[in-house]
Design a protein that fits this description.
Family (chains A, B): Belongs to the transketolase family.
CATH topology of the largest domain in chain A: Rossmann fold
Distance between the termini of chain A: 83 Å
Domain Transketolase-like pyrimidine-binding (chains A, B): 330-493
Oligomer: homodimer
GO molecular function, one term (chains A, B): transketolase activity
CATH class of the largest domain in chain A: Alpha Beta
Helix content of chain A: 25-40%
Cofactor (chains A, B): thiamine diphosphate; Mg(2+); Mn(2+); Ca(2+)
Region (Disordered) (chains A, B): 281-324
Chain lengths: 637, 637
C-alpha cells in the first residue's frame, strides 16, 4: 500500500500502522544483523510515524532538493528506527534493510552517516545532532531564506552533554523557529536510569530557560504528538521548539518494555518472533507524507536545487586580495582576516564563525565586511564547529576561528566532521609559546598533532602575510577538514605578492651548492631559521632554509632533497614534540626509505609559564640561537 | 594594618577598603606588566573583598591544610584580581605583585596555575573552573567528609560554554551544597556584549532549572553580597548555590566603566594614575578572614593534613589481582575492570568515574566493589575529566573511562590537566576499527595522537589481560596524564601471571638469530603480528615480534636492536597513520640516528564503515594477512 499526502492527508490510523511497522522493522533489522539498538528506536517510533506521515515535508525522490525539511537522528544508535523510516518512505527496500544493516561495505551503518543521501550529518557521538541542526537552521533562516524546518530527535541521555545547551542557547539567540527538537525521554540510558529519569518538569524548565517553546507530550499518544508537531511547525514564532515526549523504552513488546537489560541488544530470533507477533506482524506500508512547499527565493527552482554541498566558486565581485610589502611586519592572523574579507567578496557561499575572540583572530574584519554571513558563536567552541558543519551541509563554506588552544574543546566535533564528510575550514590563532605573557592555557601546543591525525585533513602553517593570504584562498576549495595555524606577533613579509603556495609544497628560502645543513621551520620558527642561517653564515656554515608551510601533506620531495644534499637537518616547531611538524618531517624521511640524515628536532618540551615572546622562544629552545647551535653541533660534530 | 577574623569579624567598612585595594592593585600590577585584564577584575573586586574578609575560611599560613575552603578563579584572565587578593591576605608581597606579574620565570603567570600554592587548578580556558570545582566538592562531601566549601568565580561570558551546565547538572545531582558559584555578570565579553547581557532573570531561570539555589545581587552592594554569601555558606541545604552578581566592568574608574574598549588591556601609566586617584590611592592592607573550622574527621589532624596531592600507596586490604590462564580469551577492557577492583582494595585513594558506559568499559566492576568511590558522570565527558581533576586536587587518584573516541570530547580539559599538573588516569575502550559493526563514530582512531602530544603524558596499549592488569597497576602511581587504551574483543592471554611490564618497556614474543624482519604491534595488532609470524614461518621467513605496549615512552632500545638486527620493520596499528604507534617508532628510529631500516607502516587510512571485526581489520590492512604480506615484500624485495 502506498499513500501520499497532502493530496489526501494521511490519518492517524495509518500513522499507528506505520509506528507498528517501524517497531517491527527495527526489531527485524537488528536481529538479522546480530547487533544494534532496537529498544532505543521503539520508544520513538510513534514520534517518527507521525512526523513521516503528517509533518516532514520531504521529496523522497529528490533528497538534494533545497526545499526539503531536514531530519537528524541525534541519538544515532537508534539507527534501525531511522532506516525503518527510510523503508516506510520507500527510499530503501526491505531487502536492503534486512541484508544491509551493519554489514561490511553497506551503507546502512551501525550509526547513520551521509553515505545515505537522506542523512545530513553523521551521528553516534551523542550531543552533536542538535548542534549540527542549529547550523542547518541558521542556513535556512539567514542564508537560504527558505521555509524548510529542521527536525532533530534527541535521546534523553544526551541531554547531559553540555553541547545540547550550547545548541539551545544559540537556537534561541538566533530565534530559530525553524528548529524542532524532539526528546525521546525513555528514562533509560546504556547502563541504567538517566540522571533525570522521567522528570519531564525539570527538562521543561531547562529548555524553557534556554529560550525554547516547550511542548510536553505522552510520546505514545499519536494525537498529542500530532498536535505538538503542528504547533512546532508554525513558523510565526521566534523561538525554537522542544517537544518533550515521555516514552517507554522497548514500547510495544511487553517482555522488554521499560527494562534496564535490553540496551543495545538485538532480540534473539525467538524473542523477535514473539515481539513481531505482539506488534501485529510484519507490514510493508509505503507512505509519503507532505511534500516541500516551493519557496519563492529568487533564482532557485524548487524542484532542482543545487547539490547538497556545492562549492560555488563564481565571483560576485572582483577579487581584491590584500597585498603586503616585503619586510612589512604583519601578524599572520591579520593577513587571515584580510584574506577572508576578499574571499567573501569573491564567493557568496563563504561564511565565517568565531568563538567570541574575533578581534584576536581577525575574523572581525569579515564580520564587518559581510555581516550577513558572519555568525558569532560566543564562547562555545563545540557549537561553533557544529554550526559550521550544518552550514556546510547546506552548501556554504565555513571558516571557523578561535585560539588554536581552544579548538581542542571541539575535537570530538571536528572528528565527527570527518565522518560526516563535510568541508570545514578551521583557523587557530595564538599558536605556541610565541604568544608570550598569557601563559600555557592560551597556547596552542597540541593542535598540529590533533589536526594531522584526522582522516583526509590538510594542515597549513604560514610564516608570513603573503603566504597566509594564498593559503586561506587555497583552503576555500579544499575537501574535508583543513586547518590554518596563525601567529600572534608581527613578523616581516617574506614573499612578494603573487607568489604561489601550493598545498603540499614548501619554499626554500636559502640554498646553495655548499649547504651543510638544512633548517626546517614553519610559522614563527621559520623566522628563527632565517636568523640562524644568518648567524651560521657569519661562521662560514652554509645553511639551507625550508619553509614547510604545508605540514600535511608535507613536501616530501624537498625534504628528501635537502636530506640527500646536506645530510643534516634541524627542524624547529612551536608545538609539542609529538605529532607536529617534526613528526611530519620524520614520517616523510622514513617513508622515503633513503639514508637518514642526522636530525635534531627542536620543539616545546616541559611546561611554559609567562614571559615575552622572545623569552618564551628561547626557553623552549626554538629561537634562532638554539637553531644555530643545533646546526653548529651537527656540522662540527 | 593587619586584621584577623573571626576573633573580631571584619566589618564591611574594611571590606570596602579591601575592594578599593584589589582594584588599585589589579591596575598597578597589569600596568607594570604591560599586559593583563584589569577591568575584568574590577567588576568582581567587591565579591572578592567580601569573600576574603568575611566568608573564605582559609589558613593562609598552611595552604595545604585539608580544612581550607577552596577558591577557584574560573575566569582566569582576571588573574590580577586573584593575585591582589593574595597580597591582601598577606600571602604574597606587593613587590612580587608589581615585579612578578606576567614576567618570565615568575609564578604570577598571565592565568593562574598551581605554581602558586593557593591555586588548585589552572584556569584560562573558560568554562573549566566550575567543573573542576565540582570535583573538589565531590571530594569534600563524599570522600574527605569535611566542611570546607568550594567558591568559584565565573565570568558571564563563560556561561555560554556547555561545560558550565554539565557542572551545575552534576552539582545538583550530587547535592553539592558545599559548592558556591559566583557569576560576575558585567555584560561584556572580549569583543562586545555577551549574548545575555545583563539579563539576570534568564541566568537565574537557567541556574534554577539546573538545580541550583540562586541568589541575585547587585555585585557592588557589599551588604547584599555579604548576605548572599552567608546564605550560600549555610550547609543545611542540598543544593549548590549560584550567586548572580550584576556588575560593571571596570567598576571604580569612570573613564572605563562599562566600556567595550578596555578588555584585556592594561591602562597606560597616566590613566593608571588617574584611576588610582579616583579609587582613593594605594592601600596596603593585610586582612585575614575566618579560619577553617577544625573538623572531627577520624585520623586527621586539622592543622597538619596531608599534602594537597598525596598518593597514598599503603594497602588497606591484601592485593588480590586478577589472574588469567594463558590462551584464555579475555577482553583487555574486562581485565582493566578486574585490575581496578583490586587496586581499589589496595588503595583507599583510588576512585573511578565513567561517562555512562561503565558496562562497556568495565568500570562497573569497580562501582559494584567500591560504590562509595565511584562517580557516575552520565554522558558528560568534559565534566568527567574535570571531576577527576578536582578529585586529584584533593589527593585522590582518579581513573576515568569512556570509549576512546569520546575522550576527544574532553581534550581541552585533559590539556588543562597538564597545566594544572594533576595526576589523572584516563582509560579509553573500544579502540580502533576492531570494534566492528558500530562504525566510525564509535572508533577511537585519533586517541593515541591526542594523548602522546600532551606534555609529560604516558600512553599504554596492552594486548592481553595480564599486561593490562600490570599496566593498570603501574598507572596508579604515574605522574601526570596517563592513558590506557583497551580493546573491545576477546583475545588470548599471552603472558603468564607475574610477568612484569615496566612503563617504557616492550616484550619480544618471537625472536631468533635468523630474524629477517621485525613485526611491531600493540593491542589488537600484536595478535595480528603473531599470526603473521606464523604464516611467515611456514614460508621460511623468521620474523621477530615486538609488543610495544608502552607507546609513550617507547622502548627505543628494543626498536633500535630490532632495526639493527633485522633491518626491516613492519609496524601495524589500529589508529590513524599520524601521531600514534607508527610515529612513536619512527621518532625513536630517527632519534637513534643510526642506519634506517626498511619500514612499512600499516595504519587506518580512509573512512571505515560497519562490518565484523575481522572484516574491518582486513579492510584497514592491519590484519595478519596484510602484515605478513608487507613483511614478505620487504624480505623478498
Amino acid at each position: 500500500m502506498t499513500l501520499t499526502a497532502p493530496t489526501a492527508t494521511i490519518g492517524l490510523d495509518i500513522a499507528a500502522e506505520v509506528a507498528a511497522q517501524l517497531r517491527v522493522d527495527s526489531i527485524r533489522s537488528s536481529t538479522s544483523a546480530g547487533s544494534g539498538h532496537p529498544t532505543s528506536g521503539m520508544s520513538a517510533a510513534d514520534l517518527f510515524a507521525v512526523l513521516l506521515t503528517r509533518h516532514l515535508r520531504y521529496d523522497w525522490d529528490d533528497p538534494r532538493s533545497p526545499e526539503n525539511d531536514h531530519l537528524i537522528l541525534s541519538k544515532g544508535h537508534a539507527s534501525p528506527l531511522l532506516y525503518s523510516l527510510f523503508k516506510a518512505a520507500g527510499a530503501i527496500s526491505d531487502d536492503e534493510l534486512m541484508q544491509g544493516y551493519r554489514r561490511f561495505g553497506q551503507r546502512l551503518q551501525g550509526h547513520p552517516t551521509p553515505a545515505l543521501p537522506w542523512v545530513d550529518v553523521a551521528t553516534g557521538s551523542l550531543g552533536q545532532g542538535l548542534p549540527d541542526g542549529v547550523g542547518i537552521a541558521l542556513a535556512g533562516k539567514y542564508l537560504d531564506k527558505r521555509p524548510y524546518r529542521v527536525w532533530v530527535l534527541c535521546g534523553d541521555s544526551e541531554m547531559a552533554e553540555g553541547s545540547i545547551w550550547e545548541a539551545l542557547d544559540k537556537a534561541s539567540y538566533y530565534q530559530l523557529a525553524n528548529l524542532v527538537t524532539m526528546v525521546d525521554v525513555n528514562r533509560l540510558g546504556q547502563r541504567g536510569a538517566t540522571d533525570l529519569g522521567w522528570d519531564l518538569d525539570t527538562y521543561a524548565r531547562r529548555a524553557e530557560a534556554f529560550g525554547a517553546r516547550v511542548l510536553v507530550v505522552d510520546g505514545h499518544d499519536l494525537n498529542a504528538i500530532d498536535n505538538a508537531m503542528a504547533t512546532a511547525a508554525d513558523p510565526s514564532g521566534d523561538r525554537p521548539t522542544v517537544i518533550l515526549a515521555r516514552t517507554i523504552k522497548g514500547r510495544g513488546f511487553s517482555e522488554v518494555e521499560d527494562s534496564n537489560d535490553w540496551h543495545g541488544k538485538p532480540f534473539p530470533p525467538d524473542m523477535a518472533e514473539r515481539a513481531i507477533r505482539e506488534l501485529g506482524g510484519e507490514r510493508h506500508l509505503t507512505v509519503r507524507g507532505p511534500r516541500p512547499e516551493p519557496s519563492s527565493v529568487d533564482g532557485s527552482s524548487p524542484s532542482s536545487g543545487p547539490a547538497a554541498r556545492p562549492v560555488t566558486t563564481q565571483p560576485t565581485e572582483p577579487a581584491t586580495p590584500a597585498r603586503y610589502d616585503l619586510g612589512q611586519k604583519v601578524p599572520t592572523r591579520k593577513a587571515y582576516g584580510d584574506a577572508l574579507v576578499a574571499l567573501g567578496a569573491q564567493n557568496p557561499r563563504i561564511v565565517a564563525l568565531d568563538g567570541e575572540v574575533s578581534n584576536s583572530t581577525y575574523a572581525f574584519e569579515f564580520a564587518r565586511a559581510h555581516p550577513g554571513r558572519y555568525f558569532e558563536m560566543f564562547i562555545a567552541e563545540q557549537q561553533m564547529v557544529a554550526a559550521a558543519t550544518g552550514l556546510a551541509v547546506r552548501g556554504y563554506r565555513p571558516f571557523a576561528s578561535t585560539f588554536a588552544a581552544f579548538l581542542t574543546r571541539a575535537y570530538d566535533f571536528i572528528r565527527m566532521g570527518t565522518v560526516s564528510g563535510v568541508d570545514l575550514c578551521l583557523v587557530g590563532s595564538h599558536a605556541g609559546v610565541e604568544i608570550g605573557p598569557d601563559g600555557p592555557s592560551q597556547m596552542g601546543l597540541e593542535d598540529l598533532a590533533m589536526m594531522r591525525a584526522l582522516d583526509g585533513s590538510t594542515v597549513l602553517y604560514p610564516s608570513d602575510a603573503t603566504s597566509t593570504v594564498a593559503l586561506t584562498q587555497a583552503m576555500a576549495v579544499l575537501p574535508g577538514i583543513s586547518y590554518l595555524r596563525t601567529t600572534r606577533g608581527k613578523y616581516p613579509v617574506l614573499y612578494p605578492d603573487g607568489e604561489s603556495f601550493p598545498v603540499g609544497g614548501s619554499k626554500t628560502l636559502r640554498s646553495s651548492d655548499q649547504d651543510e645543513v638544512t633548517l626546517v621551520g614553519a610559522g614563527v620558527t621559520l623566522h628563527a631559521c632565517l636568523a640562524a642561517a644568518d648567524t651560521l653564515a657569519g661562521e662560514g656554515i652554509r645553511a639551507r632554509v625550508v619553509d614547510c608551510y604545508s605540514v600535511k601533506p608535507i613536501d616530501s620531495g624537498a625534504i628528501a632533497a635537502a636530506a640527500a644534499t646536506t645530510g643534516r637537518i634541524v627542524v624547529a616547531e612551536d608545538h609539542r614534540a609529538e605529532g607536529g611538524l617534526g613528526s611530519a618531517v620524520k614520517d616523510s624521511l622514513v617513508a622515503g626509505g633513503r639514508a637518514l640524515p642526522s636530525l635534531v628536532h627542536l620543539a616545546v618540551r616541559g611546561m611554559p609559564g609567562s614571559g615575552s615572546s622572545k623569552e618564551q622562544l628561547a626557553w623552549a629552545g626554538i629561537d634562532g640561537d638554539h637553531i644555530a647551535s643545533a646546526a653548529r653541533h651537527l656540522v662540527h660534530g
